[in-house]
Amino acid sequence: MSSRVIVALRVKAAPLRTFDVFTREIGLWWRPNELFQFTPRSPGRLAFEPPAADGLGGRFTETLANGKVFEIGKVTAWEPGVRLAFGWRQATFTADQATEVEVRFEAVGEETRVTVEHRGWDSVPAAHVAKHGFPELLFQRRHAEWWRGLLEGMAQQAQTGGG
Description:
Elements: E1 4-11, H1 15-24, H2 26-29, E2 45-49, E3 59-63, E4 69-79, E5 83-88, E6 99-108, E7 111-119, H3 136-160
Antiparallel strand pairs: 1-7, 2-3, 3-4, 4-5, 5-6, 6-7
């Protein structure tokens, strides 16, 4: 079984609005965290590039202050208002170390339940700098707390932001 973190939160906005905030307004709600940065020079500006009309392509990137673009991962699912999935890697990951994030958007009355599942952490050794020397359960707890904080910021943006 893959090591993973699952976090869910209800947002007072429709699924499509919530998906748009997650993907198109990420720079307004994402809070960098020193423990979970993508590159040693983070934070930069995060962005999703949606796939082309044929469903191919799409990526999640961080543009650093010097203009360099780091590809965090490829977008593997782009279903507005329903589901988003993308690769997630840090600059220190080797080719065989990769994780994946899947975000589901489910209507619940007039709200949206957003569920983030970040899986594949078993591909990253316990001694890797990305895990900060935390035992597995503590790492998962800290990572889940971080995702929860991110979702709370995203929910605030969905409820009060423009668009």
